[in-house]
Amino acid sequence: MRSAIPLIDQTIIEFTSVAPLGIEFNISLFANKSNMDSSKKLISVEFEIFGLVQDVFFRKYTKKTAKRLGLVGWVINAESGTVQGLVEGPEDKVAEIKNWLENEGSPESRVDKAVFTNEKEIDKLSFESFTVNDYD
């Protein structure tokens, strides 16, 4: 007996194969589009980080941290000298990166202030990955 449970934000890949003795069998693979637990509340939040945050690999480390946490969004150096961005993902992981942005940052950075705005619950992710963008 075969049963399937529909899963949110997943791709199903199905194919048929023939074994050496001519036995045919079907294979279904379920591939997550992200490593997020779909049962968790998704959050989106914009951020702006003030201090010594440009030319110290802040964006690179932000992307690395976001990827490790399974978050999506973007980060950019602003002309004003700050770093701005948007992050989306499970509420607990968004809280982790907010803490990292405010209290840790890249090894050579100095965060004077972190401002988080437009925090809201979302139904689905708007991005497929976390990207580092050029100047605003």
UniProtKB/TrEMBL annotation:
<dbReference type="Pfam" id="PF00708">
    <property type="entry name" value="Acylphosphatase"/>
</dbReference>
<comment type="similarity">
    <text>Belongs to the acylphosphatase family.</text>
</comment>
<feature type="active site">
    <location>
        <position position="59"/>
    </location>
</feature>
<protein>
    <recommendedName>
        <fullName>acylphosphatase</fullName>
        <ecNumber>3.6.1.7</ecNumber>
    </recommendedName>
</protein>
<dbReference type="InterPro" id="IPR036046">
    <property type="entry name" value="Acylphosphatase-like_dom_sf"/>
</dbReference>
<dbReference type="InterPro" id="IPR020456">
    <property type="entry name" value="Acylphosphatase"/>
</dbReference>
<keyword id="KW-0378">Hydrolase</keyword>
<feature type="active site">
    <location>
        <position position="77"/>
    </location>
</feature>
<dbReference type="GO" id="GO:0003998">
    <property type="term" value="F:acylphosphatase activity"/>
</dbReference>
<dbReference type="InterPro" id="IPR001792">
    <property type="entry name" value="Acylphosphatase-like_dom"/>
</dbReference>
<feature type="domain" description="Acylphosphatase-like">
    <location>
        <begin position="44"/>
        <end position="134"/>
    </location>
</feature>
